[in-house]
Amino acid sequence: MKQKKRKTPETENLTSMNNDLERGAGPRRFSYTDLATATNNFSNERKLGHGGFGAVYRGYLADLDTVVAVKKISSGSRQGRKEYMTEVKIISSLRHRNLVQLIGWCHDGGQFLLVYEFMPNGSLDTHLFGKSRSALSWPVRYKISLGLGSVLLYLHEEWEQCVVHRDIKSSNIMLDSSFNVKLGDFGLARLMDHELGPQTTGVVGTLGYMAPEYIRTGRASKESDVYSFGVVTLEIATGKKSVDVMGKDSEMGLIEWVWDLYGKGQFLLAVDERLHSDYNEKQVECLMIVGLWCTHPDPSSRPSIRQAVHVLNFEAALPNLPANMPVPMYHAPTPSVSSGEPLITTSIEAGR
Question: Where is this region: Disordered (predicted)?
Answer without folding.
Answer: 1-26
